[in-house]
């Protein structure tokens, strides 16, 4: 039996047994285009030191098959980057014009727009799925990505500051829970395609896509999600009616851990570290890289937090919101995990943090 005939036979068997070829399974992808259960990235800021020649497109990368950060050889604006490889599935789905794949792209900073929309959540992300599985990409990059008809690109406005993101592969049975979380986060959807085959289960995503949501939205909701390979995640979602600091009032107390938070620390717009509740929240002030290299939180548009060393529960959360008085009036959320490789990777980035007064 020839190798070519064997491959064709296996593909046909997969189609008969599962209704879709194995090769077309939608998932997060690494830089080789291989499926991974999850990945996270840290896009580094553009350095002021001309000798470093960092152009603001370099990034650190970690996925479900590795143990620690690696500095990618790719640049974020390349189609060979982890985002380029993962979003390639979006462009293939768009080009096929089929009715079995759906996508939703959202960002409060729409590509090509000058201003940011405060009517919607302070949320940025993308979902692509079919009735078998898909992925949810949550990130902090304004004006990203372009619409599917434009193909892959990375905005010049995303080079100056640090940015973070996480992609998780989910089976389709998780999308009802994600549907409800998105309702609360109220994302600004600027491109979407949802075939009618998803109408019955995913009510709110379609309403958000058409701008017809009328249901009264809860102030907050926490849900448990499970990746395609069984990794547990918690997702915190708050609406604009929940006016507390999501980190101090909710996440730290629910996770039962002191949190070190790294969010965009715009001068005179940050909240101070908070030790008034049983579990404290501290602002990270500087991020360390290899050797003596580091950068300030003022250069970082990332949104993440990690349990302080010595805390029993080791959590890492990546998401949408800054610790700022203005962000209390915005909706958004965080996805959290106790994966030890993610925890050690982010914990290792903390150079120093602000104690409480």
Automatic annotation (TrEMBL):
Record's subcellular location: Lysosome
Biological-process GO terms, alphabetical: apoptotic DNA fragmentation
Pfam families to which the protein is assigned, alphabetical: DNase_II (PF03265)
UniProt cross-references to CDD domains, sorted A to Z: PLDc_DNaseII_beta_2
Reaction equations catalysed: Endonucleolytic cleavage to nucleoside 3'-phosphates and 3'-phosphooligonucleotide end-products
EC class (word): hydrolase
Keyword Signal: yes
GO cellular component annotations of the record: lysosome
Keyword Signal: yes
Entry keyword set: Endonuclease, Glycoprotein, Hydrolase, Lysosome, Nuclease, Signal
GO molecular function, one term: deoxyribonuclease II activity
EC code(s) of this entry: 3.1.22.1
Signal peptide (from-to): 1-25
Family matches, as InterPro entries: DNase_II
Family named by the database record: Belongs to the DNase II family.
Function summary: Hydrolyzes DNA under acidic conditions. Does not require divalent cations for activity. Participates in the degradation of nuclear DNA during lens cell differentiation.
Classification via PANTHER family: DEOXYRIBONUCLEASE II (PTHR10858), DEOXYRIBONUCLEASE-2-BETA (PTHR10858:SF2)
Name recorded for this polypeptide: Deoxyribonuclease-2-beta
